Amino acid sequence: MNNKEFIAALSNRSETTQKETKQLVESLVNVIADALDEGATISIQNFGTFEVKKKNERIIVNPTTRQRQLIPPKLAVAFKPSNALKEKVNPK
Amino acid sequence: MDKKLLLQDIANLLAEQEGISKRKAESFVRAFFDLTEEALLQDNYVKVSGFGTTKLVEVSERESVNINTGERFQISGHTKISFTPDNTLRDLVNRPFAHFTTITLNDNTTEEELEAVEDSTPSAAYENLTLSNDTAIEAAEHTSPTDTSNASTQPSTHISEETQPILPVSHSSETETVETSPAPQSNSQELYSEYAPKENFFFKDQVASETKERTLRSDSDTGSDFLSGTQTTTPEQETLSSPLPYFLSSEEITSAPTSLSTELPPQETDNQENNQDIITVNTNSSASKKTNGWKVAFIFMIVLHLLVLSYFAGYHRWFNNLHNPQTTVTKSHQMTKTNLSAQNKSSQKSTPSYSDTTATVSKKEETTPASGSTSESLSTPRTGSKTTQTTTEPTTSERSQSPTKTANKSKASTRNSYDLRTHYRREAQKYQQIPNASMVIVGTQSIQPLRSGENLYKLAKRIYGDRDFARYIIIFNHIENPDLISVGEKIKIPKLVKKTELRDKID
Q1: In CATH, what is the architecture of A44-92?
Q2: How would you classify the pairing of strands A41-44 and B4-6?
């Protein structure tokens, strides 16, 4: 489901126009992004947790050229699905 | 920074920003994630611009191995949820580190150095960063006060910069030193302990070159010899910064322990040329302080030297003949114990090979009596009991002996372990083994009567610390049904050896 479809489906559900929905989604994404930027963890019940994790720097070697490169450290958003979501995805 | 936001918090923030009621915002946020979940199950992927893509990824079934028992088991195929943040979100979050770029490392660094760098990645890699990108990191520190780890590692990089160059200079041929040079620590005491490996290498080198033809006595008073040797052989002063206090003359040893702990940190931070000056100044000042107890300490040191001398002269030969057989005898004794009556023949078979090694070992040690091939077990109680006043003294004397000891004993130990391996391999063939297991049954360790309320798994947990090891007990006792056992039943506990230890090591 791409962004367009997602907003359409969401507007159906929340009974708002697509334009409003789009505005709300953008705004929500901004709120989440700001929170993550501050280093906060966002935990959504029955869905999962978003958090920022630091990835250490590392050295990679290109196997063909033997060229070695130092990959700098970085901060990345990590998502950890909740058990409830995992079970839904993996029906027994 | 450990702030945890729940759905309600997000909804409140959204309501604030959009000027809508909190209830509406909350239902919207809830709908957002509910829809994401549903769409995920329906379409396998959801893409929200500015946020990211949530996807379902199929993980196929794969085989894995229980690391304890070597048992293979299947990790069944499952679906994984993956979230890839949108580029805008990714860049926003990574903004504190955004200025970093991938650096292509120089070609002239050799493969060995690379391994060393990889081993000590946290320090070495940071060092690389600081070398090429020093100002950038400091800038990052200022721009990202959120990242505490960066700030904490920053001071350590300075230390690493200063310690790292020292080590390669002193042992340019030995790349191992780079590996053993631990991650830099700011604690002064730990810095002090860092010198231990370095010292070892240093003395190993020297012992190899110098002490080959030395007799016992000349070697035991190499305290002064070492000093002169080190001064001539290594013009770089920094290698001596730590050995120096140990092997000055005895007068200075007395003053050294007190000034050691305070001295070493400044040595670290100061330039190499200054090191010598600082040491001498410090020792002098502390020596002048201690003039009162100086005479006592001096006499005490003489006594100590005499003790060491007599120890080397008298006990060395006696000890070599006695101690080495002892260790091997205890080993073979253990084996005979474990093999019990059933395997008596085999142990008899194996003992000749041991006596062989002991003979060669003792011979070797007699022919090459380079300083103390002494065991710490003897030297520690001796020096420890006599030197109650200076607590640092036993450690120094021990340290000076240990490198030579290891150098001398390494040959013998490899030979010894080789025989042990062949013995184990022979033993292992007698018993039924678990295929693919990480451990090999090489004999009977003990015989345990089954306690009441205990099953084989609990027994395994008690003996080996892991219930998975019950497999070995079951196969060793040829138990057909592990659930049908009675209290008091004699269970033979197998002696296990790691399979990797039986392999021939390429030295």
Answers
A1: Irregular (4.10)
A2: parallel
